[in-house]
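Most newcomers find our protein records easier to grasp once they have seen one. There is nothing in a record beyond a sequence line and a structure line. Getting from the letters to the tokens is the skill we practise here. An example says more than a description, so a record of this kind follows:
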Amino acid sequence: MEIKETVKTLLKDGFILVFNKNELDVVKTAEALIKAGVNNMEVTCRISKPAEKISRLKKELPDFVVGAASLIDFPAMLALYNKRFSIDTLPSLAHAVEAGADYLVSAANFSDESYKKFSGKIAMIPGCGSTTEIAGQFSKGANLCKLFPAKQLGGAAFIKAVDPAIHKTISIVPTGGTNATNIGDYIDAEVLVLGGSFSMIEKTVMKKIIDEQDYGLLADKLAKVKELIDQSRMAKWSGIDFAKASVEEISDVTGRNFNLV
């Protein structure tokens, strides 16, 4: 998928679900997201066989936008991990792209080498924890910057505090601790896209979904998250219809740049 189309989908959705449950079927989860009005999902490399799951998703749902997350862009660390867990290895960025990933996500920064190889071709969302990392990674080609772990770093208050200092130019994706109680706060801080895991769903409900493989119930719960995001964004930016707006229109109204030529 073209990088611009990937970024447009992320902005349209306003939400990136972190798929981190081996107990759930990856394709059925994606289909639940589609029913909920969300057309993307990141497959974290903290689950088993992530590259295989990404390949299966792109084969069965070719128009669905798939991200590879929890990538380790440090060769020595990647080699050390894969030596220890040789049966279920972590994919490199190149391996994730070969598997079909439309965007790449990490809890840490991406290397200069990876930006040279993938910037402008595959959407890149590095993990950042400071204004220096956010500005530095964006300057190298990041399309959005992930704030992780958002809750521990100060959440919406952190973003509100640092955003003016980086001139409200970079779109920050908070991930970690996002839930129904703070979605409004993040969007009030001018967040366009939020990352969140299944922890956004009540534990008892999530247990029922897993135990009964109830993807209809999962779709219902994800739809509520999407609805809350849509309502909050509409209140914040009444002049944008995110479902129809182009990347350029969103950029013009919000002031955010997405490193797209």
Observations:
- Strands lie at 15-19, 40-44, 65-69, 103-105, 123-125, 127-128, 145-147, 172-174, 194-196.
- The chain is about 50% helix and 10% strand.
- The chain has one domain: 3-254.
